[in-house]
Amino acid sequence: MKVIDILNGNSRPFASFELVPPLKGSDKNKLYASVEPLMEFNPPFLNITTHRDEIVYREMPDGNYRKMTVTKRPGSVAVAAAIMKRFKVEVVPHLICGGATRGEIENTLLDLNFLDIQNVVALRGDPVAGEKHFTPVPDGYEHSVSLVRQIANMNRGVYLDDTIRDAVPTNFCVGVAGYPEKHYEAPNMDIDMERLKEKVDAGADYIVTQMFFDNKKYFDFVRRARAAGISVPIIPGIKPISTKRHIELLPKSFSIDLPNELMKELVKCKDNGGIYQVGIEWCVMQCRELLAEGAKAIHFYTMSKSDNIKEIIKRSF
């Protein structure tokens, strides 16, 4: 079932979750262990992140360094297939422009189509570690709107090989990312909204936001999106703070702010246990307000850890 149909068809709000595939060397049982605690909430779909290969330099026995490409996690297609085999839930693999050619993206979409997976999230992805700016590979995409257009073309039966005749159309529902505090590369909020509108006009069916800790920024984001002519559903994305490291890491990594009220409570904490509990309380407050204001769903960035997420859902929904 498509995510857009789930959003339009559910009369009650629900929680969805985003999972990070386990590191290479783990088996599917570790993946299942991260999914099983969440299934008691009957999520209609699970998002699966994807990660581009990394470039590393490893020292050789002769003292020289060799540039090597390293894959650290299994691909989202394999992870999606494993989850579908074990659980009754829709899976939503992420597709990224980073590190992929147009042909490789098409092949991934064909694999997903043969698995009867109807949902994807189209993202640009991050720059290679150590690079300041995102650089597409040759014959790749610089912006996620181009990825959305490719998926929309396949949904019309238009493939990269224009000699194919009578191609069977795919049937993908496409989610894209939205940024209540704007994408860190966008020069201002208005241009960032214009780029989001381009993705929706290209064929995106719904939007999932980057995490935020100030609900006012989400409500303002939705208001500005509607004023810009964006009518598709906008799902708020939430993540509870759980460690002292998050206080520095999350604002830096995701270009987001932590509200003063939240910081006042966090700085009172003597250890990670206190921060963990403050993170739960703040997230419960966010969720209750979002639901009271009519949110159809709340998307949780679990990072494949679920104990705090479970408590938040039980206290919010």
Overview of the molecule:
It is a single chain. The protein is an alpha/beta fold and 317 residues long. The chain is built from eleven helices and ten strands. It has helices spanning 3-9, 28-35, 76-86, 102-114, 144-155, 189-202, 215-227, 244-254, 260-267, 272-292, 307-316; strands at residues 14-19, 45-48, 54-59, 65-70, 90-96, 119-123, 173-178, 206-211, 234-238, 297-301. The strands form two sheets. The chain has an eight-stranded parallel barrel with strand order 1-2-5-6-7-8-9-10, surrounded by five helices. The protein has a two-stranded antiparallel ribbon with strand order 3-4. Helix 7 links the parallel strand 8 (206-211) and strand 9. The chain is globular. The protein starts with a helix and ends with a helix. The model has no long low-confidence stretch (mean pLDDT 92).
What does the secondary structure layout of this molecule look like, with pairings?
Elements: H1 3-9, E1 14-19, H2 28-35, E2 45-48, E3 54-59, E4 65-70, H3 76-86, E5 90-96, H4 102-114, E6 119-123, H5 144-155, E7 173-178, H6 189-202, E8 206-211, H7 215-227, E9 234-238, H8 244-254, H9 260-267, H10 272-292, E10 297-301, H11 307-316
Parallel strand pairs: 1-2, 1-10, 2-5, 5-6, 6-7, 7-8, 8-9, 9-10
Antiparallel strand pairs: 3-4
Helix pairs in contact: 2-3, 4-5, 5-6, 10-11
InterPro entries: FAD-linked_oxidoreductase-like (IPR029041), Mehydrof_redctse-like (IPR003171), MTHF_reductase_bac (IPR004620)
Pfam families: MTHFR
Pathway: Amino-acid biosynthesis; L-methionine biosynthesis via de novo pathway; One-carbon metabolism; tetrahydrofolate interconversion
